[in-house]
Amino acid sequence: MKTEKFGPLIDGHPYVDDKCPACSCAFKIGDFIARVPIGPGAYTNEMAKCRNNLTYNPIKICCHYSCITGERRVKERRSSGRRSSDS
Ligand SMILES: [Zn+2]
Which of 13, 16, 27, 32 has a beta carbon 3.0–4.6 Å from 65's, enabling a disulfide? Predict the structure, then answer.
C-alpha cells in the first residue's frame, strides 16, 4: 500500500505543534504528514470485519511522512516559492 503524503502544513493547521507519535517531535509549518492505519479502534462493526480479515475502516494517526517512509526531511525551507510577474 502506498503511503499518501499530505502537506506541507500551513500556519494555523490543527496539527501544527502536535507531537508526531513516531518521533515525539512537534509538527511544524512546512512538514509533510501521512496517516497511518492502526486498527479498528473500539468500533464493534470494524472490529468484527478485522477479525474476519475483511476490509474495514481503520482508525488512523498522523505522523511525519519521513517517519513513515524514511524519506529525508527538507531541513532548509525555501525562502520563496513564488514568482513575481508583470503579466
Ligand atoms: Zn515524526
Answer: 32
Which pTM does this prediction carry? 0.72
Considering only CA atoms, which of 32, 50, 31 is closest in space to residue 40? 50
Residues 3-40: tens digit of each pLDDT: 899 999 999 999 999 999 999 999 999 999 999 999 99
Domain layout of the chain by residue ranges:
1-67
What distance in angstroms lies between residue 43's CA and the mean position of ligand 1's atoms? 27
Centroid of ligand 1 to alpha carbon of 70 (angstroms)? 10
CA of 48 to the centre of ligand 1 (A): 31
